[in-house]
Every structure is written in structure tokens, then in C-alpha cells.
Fold this protein.
Amino acid sequence: MADASRTSTAHVLIAADKFKGSLTAAEVAGHVTAGLRRAVPGLTVSAVPVADGGDGTTQAAVAAGFAPQRVQVTGPTGVPVTATFALRGDGTAVVEMAEASGLQHLPKGVFAPLTATTYGTGELLRAALDAGATSIVFGVGGSATTDGGAGMLAALGARFLDADGEPVAPGGGPLRDLATADLSGLDPRLAKTEIVLASDVDNPLTGPKGAPAVYGPQKGASEEDVATLDAALAHYAEVLARAVGPEAAEHALAPGAGAAGGIGFGALVGLDAVFRPGIDVMLDVLGFAPALAQATFVITGEGSLDAQTLHGKAPAGVAAAARAAGLDVVAVCGRLQLPQEALAAAGIRRAYALTDLEPDPARCMAEAGPLLERAAERLARDFLV
């Protein structure tokens, strides 16, 4: 690697994700910049706050210059919530399903594994279409739901009826009563809109690695609930296959179908979405490549650097792109749970954890900003002077 990256003539690019529960991606960049410049006054620093399609994706888009658009939609339990999507002048929108149907909209400690709905996500997508979006990056993750995207599709004009011809109730559980599905009423603007399903999850819809089994317990699902949801989603896929053709069954097995409680499946079948790893999509949308071309040194990071980081999370994507460009990459994080050899394999030379400065997790989260500045100052002295 170039020795120039260790001098005050360095051009540092900060491309870090949020520290969940403490700092947004933009705040992380601000604190890292402050710490770097304490050690190297006048250092050239640029920032591209990043996200991988999960919660925080809209914030990252707004930090990159997209305009925030706020709208009231139906929350996961039916209570109205205010959700934000991001829109750029060229008609590109970033829609984050967690804004409408995320766990953050549930009362603290209260889950609704069988009944939580993605209806509000469909309303959010429709709002993006109303605002003139012609290309939508649909970031999924952090959901409170396991309804296979049925609520989302219903909000966009699909009909899901029981044997009596009545709409099935919201949520994944009631899909066991689904008799017929009709997607002919879907908003016609969808057919003219490019929709990219952006996710770091490649699970299928059902089965041992499916949405209910892997992610249901995080949403309050008991073993019995997981079995109920898995059977209901399998039945839902069968009914959709009768309605739209065998491609629905193929989509149920496709990577990303199980993302965000199966909303990936609904997007693949009903929205004709194309699945791409979330970090790859977001790096394109956020303008990472031109920023990287100007950099001599890259800093990435997220709240917890752990085994999940290596499977499509933002720091892994940033490090891979920077390493391909021949640049050194270091990371900042709240806590580090990866050995040095795993970091090196991912293209990260070293990681600076806030818990090395403050072992108490509660204080670490409460004082994340000042601690991050101290970590960045140490990083600068190690690599940039």
C-alpha cells in the first residue's frame, strides 16, 4: 500500500454505517472527522455515510443529498406512523421498509409476530410513485413483520380473499385462510418503475433457513408461531403460484425472498423487483465510487463488527471496494467481535473499538460521540502522521 496514506497529504474517505442506538452514519462521520483533525489539523476528509438497505438507509440517502419526503402511513399494528422516503431530482427514490413497518414502531417490549402488517410499506411505495419516482431502491430489513409482503401488495391494489370472498386479516398468521389472490389491480405505474430489492439477507421464504425460522424469534415468535407462520407463508406462495404462474414458486426459493419477513418474496412476485446485495446498491446510489477515486485512505465501520459484518454488511462492502482500488482500510466500531485474521481477510487492516476506551456498554453507547473522536485521534496518529 502507498506510504502517502500515512502523511498529512492524505485524503481520507469516511464511509461508515450507523452505530445502532447511538449515532447515525452522518454523525459517525462527523465525530471521526473531528478526531482525525485533532491529530492532523487541516487534514482533507470527505464522507459518504453508507447503509446496506436496512434501517438507516433513508438517513444515508438524505445525507447524500436526497430530499426527505414525509408521509403518514399505517404502522405494523395498524396505528398510523410518520415515515420518510428519500427522493432525488432524477426520479430515483430510496424507500426503507423499516420506516413504515419496522420494529421501532412497536410498543417497547410488545411484539405482534402473527398480525404485524407491511400495509404501510405499500403506502410508502405508493407515495414515492405519487412524488414522481421512476426508479426505486427498496431497502428491506429491521421489520416487525412476517406477512410475505401481502400487506404491501394489498396497499398497492392486490386482493387477498378467504373462502367467503372476504379480505384476509392483516399479518402472516391469517394467510393460512387465504383462498384466492388477485394481483390484476396493482398500481399500473409499478410496471413502468425499476425497483431494486436491496438487502443483506439471502434467505428463501420458508423452510429451515426461511424468514419465520431464522428471523421470527427476533420478532417475538414462539416455536408454535414459527410453525404457524412457515405453513401460512408456504400456503400463500402456493396460492400466488395459482394466480400468477409457477414463477411465484421459483421466487419463494430465490435469494432475498425471506428478507424482512418475506417482503422480498412479495416484491419479487408482485413488483417485478430485482434482488441485489444492499450494500452494492447503496454504494452506487450514494456516489461512493467517485469519492473513492479521490481518496488515499478509507475508514469504515458500524456499531458491532462481528460475524454478520462479513456477510454483506456495509463495512465488508466498503472494504472490498477500497481494497480493489489498492487503498488501506481501517474500521471504527462500538464493539469488536472479530479476530485480526478475519478483519484482514475482509480487507480491514485494524479496527478501533469504543469498548477499548470504555468497557461499560451503557456508558459506551451514551458517550459514543466523544469516545469515537478519541478513537479517531488514535487512528490518525497510528496511520496518518
Remarks:
- The two ends are 16 Å apart (CA to CA).
